[in-house]
């Protein structure tokens, strides 16, 4: 990409095959510019490759060994065993399912709620500006603390939310977080509490850049509010939605902090996710081989999901990509 | 002339070294300028340790930094430290169940020879043999020196038992019957509470009850016997108690939640580690001040009268250089010496070690339940949670299985059969 | 029609208020329990009224070296943000101005890098830091955080620079401005809100992280997030102490967000379009 291209690119970006100026100023200018841009980008690329990709590749190689740091002498090659174990072990299988379920649930919920909030805040006045500022506060609280807040609030004995929920019979006597059927859904709700404001912000940004003339035209043409929403607003918001969705999808898949402090994967694996499972293997049992396999699986899943995203939403993004 | 001066210098240096090395002299500061990092579990002794560390510095010149960590963090950080040879911590509090793991991996210094050498100074005979053996002892090695002994005790509400016409239970049969009798769900009073949370919490509590019911994690040959009839029976009994006599949130309790439920007056009794006992009479944190009694834990009829013990020991990092190891050992000897250790306990460390402490009038006045703990130490069983190298994985398996049973996701027999297979794989 | 519009406005604002209550109530609760005496925190049924106490704050000051914790968190957050911006912004600019489809793929590459899970990279990185002798220092955390943060910055600035028209730069270049000069004096000023938004994300990520910090720091370089974990994991969950400690870990970020909120919103608005 930064190498010298055979076709000459002149300043306005159009390729011109036989431009007379190419040999005097065109080439050297374009070349110089390419070199300059490459120099600007190189540090970041090298740094990221060395610090993030390097260890990741190393980890990838570890995933083919049965390698435990506590018993380093017993390290030996096992091929795909660590990956197969992820499928054979019901705990790991459950973790995979839970992670996808959580991601799908959280992102969908946050998108829907976020869009609703964005629509509410669309008008630009002082009230909405202040509200938006305040609304971002949940996103600034450390995820660890968010988990702890809700762990306390949902406790059926002394929690401000948990006690009424239990008394009214809306939750079992052990509280929502202790019920295998609803624990994961509860965590999705907690995640939504934390991140919906950010989603709303991004979606609102998208709404604000909608061309008003199109909207007015639609109104003039007699489109009802719901019609305007589904046929005009939603499609034109796709670029912003894309950004918001892909960001949240990547982060929700790697959820760890809130689950770690509320349920630690319980009750009975109901909230076990890939990150929780992987951290336990790697940082509790020091089972590097298994942890690396989980880690690689996470990256692959995210890549696949991101690729699917881009493929599905790309046609609508042609203008901006 | 030269050899003579050389000899004199050597002699002088030798004398200085001997004087400095004897440790007890308050005038010299043998470890001046040295810093020792101690990783401590966040139990009651942690804050007290941090508080008296300056006294050691005044005595020897070595500054002791006490880093207080939570249980999972502690194990992860010190294991990473040993495995990576990063020498981040010179001393660490070692849980009773980690003894086997540490012995096999050789993380900490084997203190056996030093203990023999300094036996008189340490007054070894004053330390309960059960504590010396279990807290840090493993197959002839002593990978850590006992420091904080805990006894399994039964804390119970004298007022509730009296009004129901009951005395503190002496057998497990009585214990279960009383629990059911004392439970009144309408009045939100429960006759039983224990940890139910998946992981170490439920594993450790259940193993305690399992021992009292007559079960055992390992068989006579030291191999896992998780699905023995006795063990399965105790799982069934544990679940029954949870369903019929425990507060609703118990399946999610860890140690903190369990202690809190007792302090709030929700439950009529609680088997627990002795270290929490002092808090029950503290009106600042407890709503039941003055109403709690401490007695020995019951055993099933026909079982030998033994009591569960646990606690923490202090281990010295093997990677650090010899001079630091020496300083660390000096610290251990100092902090477990009769005078200093008593001071620790007077400040609320709740960590008992010596026979002399259990009959000390000052301590008895403050903590009248010491005789219960003393008896528990004398007939202590420190192996009901097997202190073998495979313990962490074993605990994880048990923790998952028992929790699954408690929340109704598995039945006792299949759950135990399941983890028996997995446990056997660990021993291959 | 006047009435209908006003009615709609009132309904809207009411709805927003409800949303605000849901969003802020738990945070308010967190701050309130710091002043609640321990026995009241666990009162069942829960009570709203209590007589405030500062005991929990005293516990925090006794148990933790708050100054050191805040210093560590601050240095790591600022250090990694500065480093990430330093190498990330130029790269984002370069990718935005490079007329090549591969630039876009590279931008996505940077975006995906942020998803590298800590589990397997942590141990090799830990050993590497030990070998270099940086283990336990703030640098170890800064280096690792910056890798992930800078990848994110590259991607964000890529979007922002794309949104900013290149024509002004081109004019400057024609006028004899150097490439670098055009970058610094012409392009950068147009994306200042984007810079601030990126910086805010970086600061939040580093400040709130506890997994990397827990593993790579020592007792005296610990951050406040790690301390929060210690406070939680005790045998006795001390909610009061936690609430008090959370004041110090949350308020700085909340304050930053409130002060820079305008730029953050503006930044994201620019970049998404």
Describe the structure.
The complex is a heterotrimer of chains A (321), B (428) and C (273). By secondary structure, chain A is mostly helical. Chain A has 14 helices and two strands, in the order αββααααααααααααα. Chain A has helices spanning 26-62, 81-88, 90-120, 126-135, 137-140, 143-153, 162-167, 183-208, 212-220, 225-236, 238-253, 257-262, 274-284, 288-313, and strands at 65-66, 76-77. The two termini of chain A are 17 Å apart. The model of chain A is unreliable at 1-24 and 316-321 (pLDDT under 50). Chain B has helices spanning 2-21, 44-60, 71-83, 99-105, 112-117, 119-122, 129-134, 158-163, 172-182, 200-213, 229-245, 255-263, 322-335, 338-346, 355-358, 361-366, 370-378, 391-406, 412-426, and strands at 35-41, 63-69, 91-95, 137-138, 141-142, 145-157, 269-273, 292-296, 307-316, 380-381. In chain B, 47% of the residues lie in helices and 14% in strands. In chain B, a hairpin with a 2-residue loop joins β4 (137-138) and β5 (141-142). Chain B is globular and about 65 Å long. Residues 1-17 and 19-26 of chain B have low confidence and may be disordered. Chain C is flat and about 70 Å long. Chain C contains 13 helices and no strands. Chains in contact: A-B, A-C, B-C. Chains A and C meet through α1, α4, α5, α6 and α8 of A and α1, α4, α5, α6 and α7 of C.
